[in-house]
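Prompt: For my understanding, could you write out one protein's sequence and backbone structure tokens?
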Amino acid sequence: MILDLFAGPGGWSHALTVLGVRDIGLEWDPWACRTRVAAGQLTVRTDVAMYPVWPFTGRTYGLIASPPCQAWSMAGKRLGLLDQPLVHQAVADLAQGRDTRERLLASCRDERSLLAAEPMRYLAALNRHGQPEWVAMEEVPDVLPLWKQYAAILRHWGFSVWTGILNAADYGVPQTRRRAILLASRVRTAEPPEPTHAQAAEPESLFGPGREQWVSMATALGWGATDRPVPTVCAGGGPGGGPEPFPSGSRKTLTDARDRGTWTPRATGSPSSPQREDPGQPAPSGTRDNPPVGRPATAEAHRWSWSLRSNNQANATIRSLSEPAGTLFFGHRANECVWVPEPSETRRADVGQLVVPESIRITAREAGLLQTFPADYPWAGNKGQQFSQIGNAVPPLLAAHLLAPHLQLPLNPDDFTLAA
């Protein structure tokens, strides 16, 4: 079997499914488990730190681990960095067969920090049976020193090991997500997969195959380079499921206007007001505070220009649709990702006094696509629970590039269909 620790909603598992293989995922979060079950993935709901290893001894071909990153991530308080000496001690002790987790945990500033040592508990027990054949682990970049400690131990056990930082955008993921990776194998030389994409397209040469340009958000979402569909469906509110950004009933109003052909984006790049029911009446003049309504539709193809902002802080990463997204992370309101119209401008419509907001929260479907999950992936839970799963998941396309060499299976990136 392939054992997937901290399996989440199924980033690694979906990659294996596309490759024609299945794993068994251990996961604690109930909503991630519901997502996995709905996606048809084998799942044991359990605390990885409490589950025994003996059911897997002598039966595990590959081991995957992506411990929770909240304690280490830039999006959190990063108390895991202060706990690093304790985590390193736990890894060293577990590799020697000594379980000092309880004592060390009492000194941790973030109780999640020690979860990064859990894979060693499984690896040490499995190694006594000459397993697993290969290992793949992923975490935020600050965990790389810990992966190097793992690497030294695994090499002592006979593994070939590679550790380093990879950018998901270099493998066709529409997101510049940098992650610390550990790859290990008993039967082949461990090395990172060859990148397939680059920030600027590279032609084929005598020194190797060419690389395609990074995949943009527009390509992944099936928009045009600058088009943004009429926002009749939006995630709205905060991660906990707060208020919708449009007033009640406005979605239907916008949908009806679009279906009647009376919703026309303005040339300035901001969404336009719906047209009056009588297009024959002259459109009144307006100002910024009282913009004109009833602007007749024309044959000219006006476009919106939208960007994705990674959070609402002053130093937030902002990327246009023609670029990959920045790293997606969710969890509290300061870390929301929202679509920002360019130029940002609020306009008032004459239908129900609708106020179009200056930004619209990214939907779960859009976030999933930018992580290379299918458009119809069955995310479970409310908005906050869905976004938490998506932000913490491994992009399946990146996972497939990491796993295919271990499985000696061909990878066709086209199998990871995004926009639909």
